[in-house]
Amino acid sequence: VVGVSMKDRSAILLAGHRGDAAYWFENACGCFITSSYYMAQPPAWLAQFNSRKLADGYFPAPWTKLYPDNSLYVKYSREDDFPGEWDLKDTTFPHQHRGHPGQAAYYENLRRTPFADELVLQAALEAMNFHDLGARSAPDVLAVGFSAGDVIGHTYGPFSQEEMDNYLRLDLALGKLIEAAEARAGAENTLVILAADHGVLPLVEWLRHEGNKAAKRVSLNAVIGAVQAAFRERFPGAPDLIADTEGLNITLNLEAIQKAGLRRSDVEQTATRALLSTGAVAAVYTQADLLSDKPSNDPYIWLFRNSFFQSRSPHLLVRVKEYYYVSNMPGGTGHGTVYDYDRHVPIVFMEAGIRPGRYSAPAGPEDIAPTLARMLGIHDYPIERDARLLTEVLGGGGQPTGR
Predict the structure, then answer these.
(1) pLDDT 10s digits, 39-97
(2) How does DSSP classify residue 260?
(3) Assign residue 17 a region: left if phi > 0, alpha if psi is -120 to 50, beta otherwise?
């Protein structure tokens, strides 16, 4: 079991606790690295691969469109120059590199281009050969995280020409990866599972252009500032009541609260009122709310409860209003809400034995592992409470809604 990605968390999580190896890209060196969790020393192939300095080879030529026909891009995406993209400056093709090879800034910006996925493809092919994947009678798993679409989506939005060009190029990369896997194991012995980790909110400006007047861009500093102002007014002798923020989610300084002789519930209520007063927040959940199993009329609280881990989660988790984007950036977009646009992802199984069709029954990425285990003959694989076997692709249950 081998994981490969630009992102450390992607390669590691895809490989799992007992993965044989995970490789990811490090901006500091412009190279792929691994961890002593998997091996005492990096393998020789990795040093040889990094010596080729493939990431540096994309400089200085800019990122240009894969196809010269601009009308094709306008037809399937939108005009290249569209309000709300990134820094409101570098928003049209061609896109120049930022920084120079050897600088972390150059490698960081490279993640914002399709070249990031090309690098991951090359590393995955090398890892496939080194680990001799697909050459034995026992199944092997190669988990590859192509994440350029994530960063490009943040930067230019999901309906941008940049995102379209990226997925045209990713289609070619996936083709090469599948061809290489089938060449090693045979097409009849190759199973491909395609999914995504999240969706994204379209650019606020695009939503409003399409008639969604509820969409709004809001300053993160202004929202957090409202909480800080409320604390100063309500608790004037108690500074530093906020220990940390992660977006809109707030971790309170419990030591400062205790030292000032305050009740935690009063501090939480004050913060909640301030957050709701900004007009950008739909609901605020305390740890007490999320630890409770009481029924609720809130249709989203169970999602927060599912992702809550008391010793690590913030003290106040915030549900932003639908179609609102809260950030300090002048442009771009993000994800991480409970709404459908952030949660709706594809799941595709491709193999000779897969029953073809499009299925509309509820499913999620959490269903992939138990389904794959069943396909591999692992019948005692544990299934999480809110996961299920995708019996549709196994040839039983569910009627396809298309081909």
Answers:
(1) 999 999 999 999 999 999 999 999 999 999 999 999 999 999 999 999 999 999 999 99
(2) T
(3) alpha
Helix, strand, or coil (residue 216):
strand
Residue in the structure block whose two tokens are 């300095």:
53
**What are 335-382's pLDDT values in tens digits?**
999 999 999 999 999 998 788 889 888 999 999 999 999 998 898 999
Per the rule left: phi > 0, alpha: psi between -120 and 50, beta: everything else, 371 is: alpha
The rounded distance, in Å, linking the Cα atoms of 19 and 38 is 8
Residue-wise pLDDT for 230-277, tens only, equals 999 999 999 999 999 999 999 999 999 999 999 999 999 999 999 999
Pair of tokens at residue 347: 């799941």
Residue 48's contacts (CB-CB under 8 Å, 6 or more residues apart) are none
Burial class (CB in 10 A: 0-12, 13-18, 19+), 133: buried
Please compute Rg for the chain using Cα positions: 24
User: Could you tell me the two tokens for 297?
Assistant: 């009329």
- C-alpha distances in Å from residue 391, one per residue of 32, 199, 361, 374: 38, 25, 11, 10
Angstrom distance (rounded) from CA 104 to CA 46: 20
Pair 204, 383: CB distance under 8 Å: no
What number of other Cβ atoms are within 10 A of residue 175's Cβ?
A: 10
Q: What are the structure tokens assigned to 142, written together?
A: 């190669």
Q: What is the per-residue DSSP string for 8-60?
A: HHHHHHHH-TT-SEEEEEETTTTEEE--TTT-SS--HHHHHHHHT-GGGGG-S
Closest residue by Cα to residue 44 from 34, 54, 56: 34
pLDDT above 90 coverage of the chain, percent: 91
- Distance linking the first and last C-alpha atoms of the chain: 32
Q: How confident is the model at residue 401, as a pLDDT? A: 53
Helix axes 115-130, 44-51, angle to 10 degrees: 150
